[in-house]
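ARCHIVE ENTRY
Sequence with per-residue tokens
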Amino acid sequence: MGNNAGALLNAIRDLSPLIKARSAEIESKRELPNDVLEELIAAGCFRMSIPQSHAGLEIDLPATLTALEMLGRADGSVAWLVMVACPFGTFS
């Protein structure tokens, strides 16, 4: 696993308690709170599949799936949101 993947997985591990704590709020409001979104952006969750030449993390598919699994354990809808955003980087 590359440095980018390790850093991303560590960031997700650190964010998981926050995401779990806000899970009921996410579900009831049916949207991601801005502060949680900002944390996901800062961690690089939406850049994980984008090539490094385009300021992405360019992590491999197994690490991407691990990241999504970790997010899913914290909150399924957060994992779904990140997963939906990732194909653009994958296809690029």
Observations:
- Residues 3-21 form the longest helix (19 residues).
